[in-house]
Amino acid sequence: MSVKYTMSPHCRTLSNILPATGLALGMAFPNAAIGQDDEQTLMTYDVVNPPSCTNNKGETVRFVDSSRGRSGMAAGMADRDGSGKPVVFRSNYTATPPEYQRFIDRHECAHHQTGDVDRPHPPRNGPEHLMNESISDCIAILRLRDEEGYDQAGFNRIASAMRNDMAKIGFPEISISSRISNIDNCFANYGAPQDFVDGILKQRGLLREGTTHQEPNEHVFCRPSVGTAWITNARRVDGSYRWLSCREPEAFRMTG
Predict the structure, then answer these.
(1) 240 within some domain
(2) pLDDT tens for residues 109-152?
């Protein structure tokens, strides 16, 4: 079963993309990453070159630029095209800064890397869906850190662009700060991005034979509830994910 990891500028209105629980940007679409610029400002940016991307089956993922979707909203969509080839559609990237374009690219690539695109899609905004989004965020920031050399200043530029875009759409501060906190934790504490990807694939039974896997730091994800925000990573216990309430302090303390 192939499920489109979409961003809704193609088919939904803004009122549809704001989830009732106040969860962070992208949660309203099935596993998507988006960025929005104020249409009144008319600020535009050069479009960055896409990164290399290979899915969990060893297939090369194509990146396709598009001007479709809502004007002033940058978005990415991980999917398979009409011929069954893996693809990331990049919509209106001129609307968001280059640092955030790179983040969106790698977030969408991560849905291919972890096999999300070819797995049955969990209920939107449910715990499994939100875990997929948190995982893709983590992989994206790890790749920028290790492959592009992003230091703390680079991370801060991504966080600033993310905060700006989310605030313009109308997300509350708790959603914005929780998502940034989750990504900051990954950036500061996790190892190589491929080890992280391999750990996810191993847990899902998707790790290909012959792949060398180094067990990464364990992780725990907090269970979102109404009024809370993003999934926050901490530590996995006894080889399985342990759920915490997002409001439990230990969900934010148990890093590393």
Answers:
(1) no
(2) 999 999 999 999 888 878 888 899 999 999 999 999 999 999 99
Split into its structural domains, the chain has a count of 1
d(CA 124, CA 126): 5
At 89, give phi and psi (nearest 5°): -90, 130
Evaluate if pTM is beyond 0.85: no
**15 occurs within a structural domain:** yes
Identity (one letter) of the amino acid at 197?
V
Q: Which of 169, 22, 14, 28 is nearest to 96 (CA)?
A: 169
Distance CA 23, CA 2 (A): 25
20 belongs to a structural domain? yes
Please give the structure tokens belonging to residue 21. Answer: 């629980």
For 171-203, write each residue's pLDDT tens digit. 899 989 999 999 999 999 999 999 999 999 999
Give buried/exposed letters for 158-167 (b at 16+ CB in 10 A, else e). Answer: bbebbbbbbe
- Asked if residue 138 is part of any domain, the answer here is yes
Query: Residue 72 belongs to what domain range?
Result: 8-205
What single string gives the DSSP state of each residue in 193-238? HHHHHHHHHHHHT-PPTT----------EEEP-TT--S--B---BT
205 Cβ partners below 8 Å, 6+ apart? none
